[in-house]
Amino acid sequence: MTQNRITRRKLSMLFAASAAAGTLPIWAHAQQNYPSRPVRFVLPFAAAGVADITARVAAEKLGDKLGQRFVVENQPGPGGIAAARAVLSQAPDGYTIGLVTNGTSISAAIYKALPFDPVKDFATISTIGAFDLVFATSADSQFKALQDVIKASRAQPGKLNVGTINVGGTQNLAAELLRASAGLNFQIIPYRGTPDVIVALMRNDVQLMVDFYAPMKSTLLDNKIWNGMFAPRGTPTEIIDVLNRAIHELVANPEVKQRYAELGIEAKASTPEELKARLAADIGKWAAVIERAGIPKQ
After folding, report:
1. Residue spans of alpha helices (H) in 22-145
2. How far apart, in Å, are the Cα atoms of 26 and each of 20, 31, 110, 260?
3. Distance (Å, whole) CA 2 – CA 235
4. CB of 96 within 8 A of CB of 231?
5. 10 Å Cβ neighbour count for 287?
6. How many C-beta atoms surround the C-beta of residue 34 within 10 A?
């Protein structure tokens, strides 16, 4: 990952040396004209999901703003490892960027070892959206608020069943976090996918389910899950700034806000530093949840 990398200090030295020689370095010219060719945007998910749609909306608007196509490339795989490797293996020149998500922080917490360090190796750019994570009930449920769930769980310990998707996923760990932080005693039942959890909810096999925003109106817990963009470590600050400014403009675009809102997403940008801090904090948060829940590292 150090191949073709140029640090800011070396870049400054290069500017000084070339100025003395009366020439401009190639890197300086490339930064001033960035982007001068299409940008590859690698996602750790398959096509057609909410995160994919979110990223494609952002890619379209970034292309319109910056005058070059942002080409979305889906590289799904366990832990987002394949997609991250695809980005980090490239030169830090701004022409290969990736999608970093809340799932990245979970991967860093649940895997014994990753072939990269998200906090150190990702040159964070900005968040692009925040998702609502909800606890949902069936339409005829007795639970109308989170406090109802807490009261029922404490009145009848171990009787309440909460459905989630696979162990170690964001939804599953959110249920673990609620159980641990509120000191509750309820059963967490994992299913293969969201449709299976919905069926279980309708049958009353589970009384609650945890998932991202969907056509469900009983919201019992609001906890923001995020998506953002990153580039390889060593990407020049000037390029990061170009992308960050463009993202701030796109999330303020009324069309983008509307398209995101239809998916239950808040269009939201950040500074690179804010995204890096959020990534680091979430790694610590999910690591604590995983340890308390006794989930073995992979």
Report:
1. 26-32, 50-66, 81-88, 102-110, 118-121
2. 15, 9, 42, 38
3. 12
4. yes
5. 16
6. 19
Residues 174-197: pLDDT tens digits?
888 888 888 899 999 988 777 788
**Which residues share a beta bridge with 96?**
40
pLDDT category of residue 30 using cuts at 50, 70 and 90? low
The sign of the torsion formed by the CA atoms of 182, 186, 190, 193 equals negative
Kind and range of the H or E element at 278?
A: helix 272-293
CB atoms within 10 A of CB 185: 13
Counting Cα atoms < 13 Å in the Cβ hemisphere of 254 gives 0
Domains of the chain: 39-128+225-290 (3.40.190.150), 138-212 (3.40.190.10)
Question: Beta strand 161-164 with 208-212: parallel, antiparallel or unpaired?
Answer: parallel
pLDDT digits over 11-28, tens only?
A: 333 333 333 333 344 445
* Distance (Å, whole) CA 96 – CA 92: 8
185 in helix, strand or coil?
A: coil
